[in-house]
Design brief:
The structure is a homodimer of 409-residue chains. Chain A contains 12 helices and 14 strands. With 409 residues, chain A is an alpha/beta fold. In chain A, strand 6 and strand 7 form a beta hairpin. The structure holds nicotinamide-adenine-dinucleotide (2 copies).
Chain lengths: 409, 409
């Protein structure tokens, strides 16, 4: 596997050694940075820590206590002897980003560094604008940095399955071949995003695709499903390496939220009819998928799209699984239907392809009973840290207004 | 036709009276504002005049001398007795935009107010970022203003045919019905934009479509072709009402540029092979189309897409037409092939539908010999104002860099 020191002479993309993880202090980014470091990649984390600021401002906290990024990296070094470089700053600041590129000289950039909550993007006008500006301009800057400073560098960009919406036909991986009026072409798969956050990802995908064509950028767009779980081999090594686990109505995602709700005896919050079906994956598969993408880079000029999830579930199916697991562990679980704060189909066809990462070698960790048991036990362990006021959804897609929403204690 | 003074009691969209023209100091916007005012709509122009700043900064100027917006509006009033309200400011400033909405109370907003040059968006990183930020955030603000202050207001948004790129299948108006693996759905037509400017329009379209669904916004996206010509009934009334006419390599568009080139004896600048085919329309049809869209508003929640052009031409066809017209008027016209500064297909299939505006009553002004003669004569009249140094393209899609490009005298 890759070793350090030789990056001045490393040229082609065939042996990527130096990986910049943008958003490396976040949920997916932290697990990925450690995983890659453990696999002997040279890793640098780039993060503005703005996500920690959002939590402070909204009065939210991770279920799990998380250390500062500085302590996390020091602990990793003392445990493994491996160094992770740290660059604190905002990628929307191009001067800062240039500095990180010229100092670290990445062979691959994994870009997790965006405002990634759909509800956050629907709180008020200024947060909607922030989300699109932060995500779109940040990604544009990364593209310009690659073009200018590291043209062989492979961009691995996190998108979301939510970009596709819920079309009434099968969802393909990025492209679809259409025969129309007797002619045929393979075109970008139509997108139907349903929040300002999801839209920002569609904008990113379109911008990246253009730069692949115009500048020969090599890029992989990972349309990720909903991630669940928290433990990975590396974060388990020490409590100071523990990953964040969001359960609140703004940043928490479906299955993780249900586990916490079950652990504290809160009814599972199914939005509307609960027929919303999406792709899901274990965080251990997130890190695996990203590693596979890096180890098998896109060609110059190629805009490659992978759907990154392992299984589909409806919200009702997840609620039933968590209920069963709860009962097995001896606590009863109820489910309530909450008026849907989003605008989305609650019953719909859903069949999304996800074979490309499997073809590259992904070995999925499927959602088994035992996994669900251990995830539930994990949340029970931290249940005294739960602020139950944060569980119900507080952001409405329809009621978003133009006045800044202030948050009371 | 609409009359003033009654807007407090006017409710439904069936009789739109008050039209806000964002970007009303520009090429399409000025012609449209006058046309609508002439048709007895109450018109307000909202414009930051930033386009005049771009011209100053890049050392460019309109072929035609244009008056200040203040003098234009005063002259219109003195000629016709009609008042056009004026709001000078940037729609990215939401406080300003709110003020215009609450003061003017539009029934329809025609949104021309964007950075609209593909080459401008490809000059350097900061102009690429400016373009996407200006266009995307400006449009988001307009959507929020409608939702908050005028929820019945109809948004008529200028998009571009360039959003579609050059797929190998027929281009439909906004949506395409796809049958795939035995199932069928009608989905947004796939977009393949090829500059940061064109991409910004795709981002806008996606954002608008979402707000129609989530908030019930009524919107018409006019995917406009390349506009040519300069005279409209209203701008002809007085020289102080004269519209701008761009011929330079940054803001000038295909046919208009060729006419100026022919007028000054410059060879027609065909980029690459010249097989690039696009939709075109006369500026008199731009104003007609916008009026038709306003008079027939979209329903609440409807995201309606019209392809706004009347004829397709390849660059080579246009060059041949201008050559013929020049010869008829007694001056020889040459054509040269210039290395293509863009990244685009130079030979491709192109067949774009454009029936929806015809169905609403559009009566096209097709590009006849006599029209071309008069356009050519028009440019000859102003030929002493031409700065021939501005004719060749100066912006390369592939060479765009991160350093601010400074412009020398
Ligand atoms: N968590 C999921 O279930 C999920 C699902 C699909 C896709 N994704 C995508 O994966 C990526 C990571 O998600 P996550 O759950 O780890 O989010 P997260 O909020 O935990 O982490 C994102 C990190 O990016 C940083 N960041 C944001 N904007 C930045 C900027 N301008 N400059 C520098 N750093 C910035 C934040 O500080 C944060 O540490 C996101 O792009 C997200 O859209 C996540
Ligand atoms: N001219 C064409 O051939 C053509 C073709 C297709 C589409 N369009 C679209 O039609 C619209 C008008 O084009 P045009 O040729 O008249 O352009 P133009 O540059 O002549 O006019 C645009 C006007 O918008 C104003 N503006 C820009 N950003 C603004 C902001 N943030 N706030 C307030 N005002 C702002 C500018 O000052 C300018 O007066 C554009 O959206 C363009 O994309 C034009």
């Amino acid at each position: 596997q890759p070793s350090s020191g030789s990056h001045q002479t490393s040229t082609g993309p065939s042996e990527p050694k130096r990986v910049m993880v943008i958003g490396g202090d976040g949920y997916c980014g932290w697990a990925t940075a450690l995983h890659l470091s453990n696999k002997n990649y040279e890793v640098a984390i780039v993060d503005s820590l703005v996500r920690r600021l959002f939590d402070h401002q909204l009065g939210l906290d991770s279920l799990t206590p998380i250390s500062s990024i500085h302590n996390r990296i020091r602990r990793w070094k003392s445990l493994t002897g491996k160094t992770i470089q740290l660059f604190i700053g905002d990628i929307c600041d191009f001067e800062f980003l240039s500095e990180t590129f010229n100092s670290f000289e990445p062979d691959a950039v994994v870009h997790f560094g965006e405002q990634r909550s759909a509800p956050y993007s629907m709180i008020d006008r200024s947060r909607a604008v922030f989300t699109q500006n932060n995500n779109v301009i940040g990604t544009l800057n990364v593209l310009f940095a690659i073009k200018e400073f590291r043209e062989e560098c492979h961009l691995v960009k996190l998108g979301t399955m939510g970009e596709y919406g819920t079309p009434n036909i099968d969802i393909e991986e990025g492209y679809i071949t259409i025969t129309h009026n007797g002619r045929t072409d393979t075109l970008p798969y139509p997108k139907q995003a349903s929040s300002f956050y999801h839209l920002s990802k569609v904008h990113d995908s379109n911008n990246i695709a253009f730069t692949c064509k115009a500048w020969g950028i090599r890029a992989t767009d990972l349309n990720q499903g909903v991630v669940y779980g928290v433990r990975t081999d590396e974060t388990e090594m020490h409590e100071e390496l523990c990953n964040r686990f969001d359960y609140d109505g703004v940043f928490g995602t479906a299955l993780n939220r249900f586990c916490v709700q079950a652990a504290v005896g809160h009814a599972l919050t199914v939005y509307g009819k609960g027929g919303q079906t999406r792709g899901y994956l274990d965080i251990r598969d997130t890190v695996q998928c990203v590693e596979l993408a890096i180890a098998n880079p896109a060609q110059r000029g190629e805009f490659r799209v992978f759907n990154q999830f392992t299984e589909q579930f409806s919200v009702n199916e997840l609620a039933a699984l968590v209920t069963k697991a709860g009962e097995k562990l001896g606590f009863p679980v109820e489910t309530i239907s909450v008026p849907n704060p989003r605008v989305e189909a609650e019953e719909h066809y859903y069949n999304a392809k996800h074979t490309k990462l499997i073809e590259l070698g992904l070995q999925p960790h499927l959602l088994s009973d035992s996994l669900l048991d251990s995830l539930l036990n994990f949340t029970v362990k931290y249940k005294d840290r739960v602020d139950t006021k944060q569980i119900m959804p507080s952001v409405s897609w329809r009621k978003i207004g133009v006045k800044p929403k202030t948050i009371a204690a």
